[in-house]
Amino acid sequence: MITHQEISEILARYDESRISFATMCSHSALQIFHGARLEGFRTIGICTPSRRRVYEAFPLAKPDVFIEVREFADVLNDSVQQRLRELNAVVVPHGSFVEYVGADKLLKEFAVPMFGNRLTLEWEGSREKMYRWLGEAGVELPREVGSPSRISSPCLVKFPGAKGGRGMFVASSPEEFEQKVKEMVSRGLISPEEAQRPVIQELVVGVRYYPHFFYTPLFSNGYRVADGRLELLGIDRRIESNIDELHRVVTASRGGSWPEPSYVVTGNLPMVVREALLEKLFDIASSVVEASLKLFPPGMIGPFCVETICTPDLDFVVFEVSARIVAGTNLYPMGSPYSHFLFDEPMSTGRRIAREVREASKRGRLSEVVY
Ligand code: AMP
C-alpha cells in the first residue's frame, strides 16, 4: 500500500505554483479538464491513440498535454508515473480510471498524488466493504434475502466484483436463481468463485435519484459536517439499458414474452427533488461522511454520490455509494440548479475539485485533500 506519508513527500517536492491536473480521457474527463482550466491549471490527458481526436474535438476542454498509452492500464508504467510527477500532476480518479486500472493496483502501485483520500477506493471497490460503510452510516439499505432458498418475491442478485449494472439479474424463485447463476457462469459474466457469494436484495420499486455531493474539510460555512462542509452540486438519474425502456415492449408486443431486464448504464438525465426531500438527502450524505471519518480517516474527501431509490412513502433506500466523481455530473459543466446557490459563478464538479486544490495549496493544506 502506498502510504499517505509517501505521497506527502512527493507533494513536498512539487512546485505548487505549477500544479497540473491529470486524468484518463474517458468518463468525466472533459468536465475535469474544462474545470481545471477555468481555475487556471494546466491539464494532462492520459489517452489511447484512437481517443485523442475526441478530446481535440472540444478546444475548451482539450488537455494541454497528452500522454499516450497503448491501453489505459499502462498508466501504472514507471515511465508514465515519472512523467506525471515531473509535470507536478494531481490525478483525478474517475469511474473508468478505477475500473480500467483496478482499485487494488492504484492503492499498491500508483505513486502519483491523487485528489481525495485514496483509501475510499478500497471501501467502495468491494460490495462487502461498501455495505459495511453504509451500515455504519445507518442509512436504509435494500432488505437482504440471506439465502437463495428464501427468494419468494422479485429480487435483484448482484455479485462481488461486477458493478455498474453488469452481471446482475432478477430472480423471483430459488429455481430461477439457480438457472440464471449457471447461465452467467457459463457465459463468463461471473467466475465460479463469485457465484458462491451473491448479494440477494429485494427489488426496491421507486424513483432513482443520484445526488452529487462534495465534502470539503477546508470550509465550514454552509451545511456543517464534522469540521467541514457538505455541498450538494447536482442530481441526475442514470439511464439504463434495457430496463428503462422495457415498458415499450408491452406496447409493441401486446403482452407477448418479455426480454430479460438488464441495467447497463448508457447515459444520464438531469433531476431535481421536491425541496422538502433535500433534508433527507443531506441527512443520508452527512451520515455517510461521518461513518467514513470513523472507518478510514481522513474519510470521504471531495466528490461522491449516494445512489438512492425514493419510495412512495418518500423514504430513500440507498443501494450504493460512488466515492469519487460520477459521470452524472457531466450534465452540469456550467453549474446545476443547486450549485447556483453555493457559488455565484459557474461551478461544475470538475471545477470544484480544482478549486479545492487551489484553496488547499493557498492555505498550506494540500496534503489534506490529496493522497
Ligand atoms: P449497482 O450495480 O448496485 O449500481 O446497480 C445497478 C442498477 O440496478 C442501479 O442503477 C439501479 O437501477 C438498479 N438497482 C440496484 N439495486 C437495486 C435494488 N435493490 N432495487 C431496485 N433496483 C436496484
First-last Cα distance: 12 Å
Rounded average pLDDT: 95
Q: What is the CATH architecture term of the largest domain?
A: 2-Layer Sandwich
Secondary-structure element series: HEHEHEHEHHHHEEHHEEEEHEHEEHH
For the record, the count of structural domains works out to: 3
| Poorly predicted sequence stretches spanning 5 or more consecutive residues | none
Q: How helical, in percent, are the residues? A: 25-40%
Alpha plus pi helix count: 14
Q: Output the CATH homologous superfamily of the largest domain.
A: ATP-grasp fold, B domain
Q: What global shape is seen?
A: globular
Question: Helices and strands: which structural class?
Answer: alpha+beta
Number of strands: 13
Radius of gyration: 21 Å
> How is the main sheet built?
6 strands, antiparallel
What is the CATH topology of the largest domain? Answer: D-amino Acid Aminotransferase, Chain A, domain 1
Question: At the first level of CATH, what is the class of the largest domain?
Answer: Alpha Beta
> What hetero molecules are in the model?
adenosine monophosphate
Percent of residues in β-strands? 15-25%
Describe the structure.
The structure is a single chain. This protein has 371 residues and is α+β, with helices and mostly antiparallel strands. The chain has 3 domains: 4-115, Rossmann fold; 127-140 and 205-369, ATP-grasp fold, B domain (D-amino Acid Aminotransferase, Chain A, domain 1), CATH 3.30.470; 148-202, no CATH class. It is 34% helix and 22% strand. It has helices at residues 4-13, 29-38, 52-56, 78-86, 95-101, 103-109, 119-125, 127-137, 174-186, 192-195, 247-253, 278-295, 349-362, 366-369; strands spanning 20-24, 42-47, 65-68, 89-91, 155-158, 169-171, 199-202, 207-216, 223-225, 228-242, 263-270, 302-310, 316-322. The strands form 3 sheets. Strands 8, 9, 10, 11, 12 and 13 form a 6-stranded antiparallel beta sheet that branches. Strands 3-2-1-4 form a 4-stranded parallel beta sheet. The radius of gyration is 21 Å and the shape is globular. The N and C termini lie close together (12 Å). 37% of the residues are buried. The mean pLDDT is 95. It binds adenosine monophosphate. Adenosine monophosphate binds at residues 142, 156, 158, 163-165, 201, 203-204, 208, 238, 240, 263, 309, 319-320.
